[in-house]
Amino acid sequence: MTKTLVVGLDGASWELLDPWIEAGELPNLAALRDTGTWAGTRSCLPPVTFPNWKCYSSGKDPGGFGVFWFENVDLAAGEINVMNGGDYDTAELWDYLNDEGQSAGVVNMPTMYPPRDIDELVVAGGPDAVEGEYRSISSGYTSPPELAEELEERFDYSVHPDPLLSSNDERGAEVDAILDLLEKRFEVATTLMDERDLDFVHVTLFYLNVLHHFFWDDEPSLRAWKLVDEWVGRLDDREDLNLVLMSDHGCDATQTEFYINEWLAENGYQVRDTSVDALLTRIGLDRENLLAVAKRAGVVDTLARVVPESIQQLVPQKDGVKRDRKLEAIDLEQTKVVASGQGPVYINPRFDVESVRESLIADLREVADEHGPLFTDVYRGEDVYNGPYVDAGPEVVVDQRPGVHVNDGIGGGTVQSGPDRWAAENTPYGIFVASGPDFESQGELDRISILDIAPTVLAAHGCAVPTDMRGEILPVFAEDPDVGQREPLSIADALDDGDGDAVEDRLKQLGYME
User: Among 2, 147, 306, 486, which residue's beta carbon has the most beta carbons within 10 A?
Assistant: First the structure.
């Protein structure tokens, strides 16, 4: 059986890549499209890292696994909790490969911190693999745990770049650090695949999208894509490899910054309370300013060590408080609606939910800028999500127009502005390319769903597709794989190694059991 390497290109879009392909800047990617099968993809809403990497690997939308954004909002309980890898209730495509006796490795995967066991290896990555505000974790990001030491000794591996990119003006060492990280992701994935004779490997280039956010189609992003293109050429030369390129979502140049919670307050859906953050914001003391000063002084690591995280979190971001701090800035008893960024909107059950939802959807559909409506549509949550967790999800979901960044900061004071720090914002429109011995060259397909990729990979490995995967097997094979369907694995099944006590311990560690 042919091996498969899936390269996850965070935030990749044909809107960004097509001009470079046409200009001859990315010849290997152009050749791969010419000889393989390719398409645009549609992400699940919201089009962000959390949840879309898990949408890809599970073949489900967020209603199927219970994570709708980086945070979980429970207004009935008055809680907002930051999510991590242990909060996803689902098995993934590598669990099904393992269940069929095939080996798998996952390198630098967002949504997988803390890492869990699969048959071979997991290296967690992305924005969730972080400790505190100013420094990344230095251990505990791999399964098995001893793999981290091997990666650091052999490859000088790290989860996050150092120095960390935090400004559009930082085009030197910060960009170089990201390019070095991308190179090492490829080196680790391909080396471990060959040395351990793995049947399947997934590798994610998360910080690629950080470059998109800060620079869009400017020179730092092109430098990164030329590096990717060189690796695509090397990988495409291998005759023993199915190569799949895909992204969790796309990106496009930012036109408008929309502060949805500020809009909610202005339009009577949210009532504010006085907080320390609001007072600090008024005097211009915010996290971005302090981080810039700390970086210039070379004391970022020192501050991270000596300043307790609880104190770090008291300093607001420039555009207001976020995550679990948002509830400190509002009067929840009088507030009807609280929003997360980039899509999910939650209605307080203390009010008539259906009445509030009807008026809210109508009002949001009218929000516009000089380019037109900010949202391509505004949905009821149950109209875009499927599965056992729909009721725990948002009551309303906005589908932000390409070029619109929906910011959930509370207390920044601005409702709508031009681009701030981000030169590009996420869109639901990503990329897919498949080439290799097991794939037929079909040219361009109509737009596919991100949910189609996991069933297609399983079919390429001769594995039956779980009945709870909502995607379809793509027409990329010379002959119908006819792999059939199977019963889904539970997360307990995915972790089961025959030792019930050990499974229970791991479930508790990962947050699935009390």
Answer: 147
Helix axes 173-195 and 147-155, enclosed angle (nearest 10): 120
Q: How far apart are CA 65 and CA 5, in angstroms?
A: 25
Contacts of 196 (CB under 8 A, 6+ apart): 103, 105, 120, 121
Residues ≥6 apart with Cβ < 8 Å to 490: 91
Closest CA to 163 of 151, 172, 150, 153: 172
Using omega within 30 degrees of 0 as the cis cutoff, is the peptide bond preceding 62 cis? no
Where do the structural domains in the chain lie, given as residue ranges? 3-253+424-510, 256-272+330-417, 274-314
Task: Write down the architecture of domain 256-272+330-417 according to CATH.
Answer: 2-Layer Sandwich (3.30)
pLDDT digits (tens, 9 = 90+) for 462-502: 999 999 999 999 999 988 899 999 999 988 776 654 444 44
- Is 183 in a helix, a strand, or coil? helix
Most distant CA pair in the chain: distance in Å?
66
Question: Which residues touch 401 (CB under 8 Å, ≥6 apart)?
Answer: 371, 372, 373, 374, 375, 376
Cα–Cα distance measured from residue 135 to residue 309, given in angstroms and rounded to the nearest whole number: 11
At 225-250, the pLDDT tens digits run 999 999 999 999 999 999 999 999 99
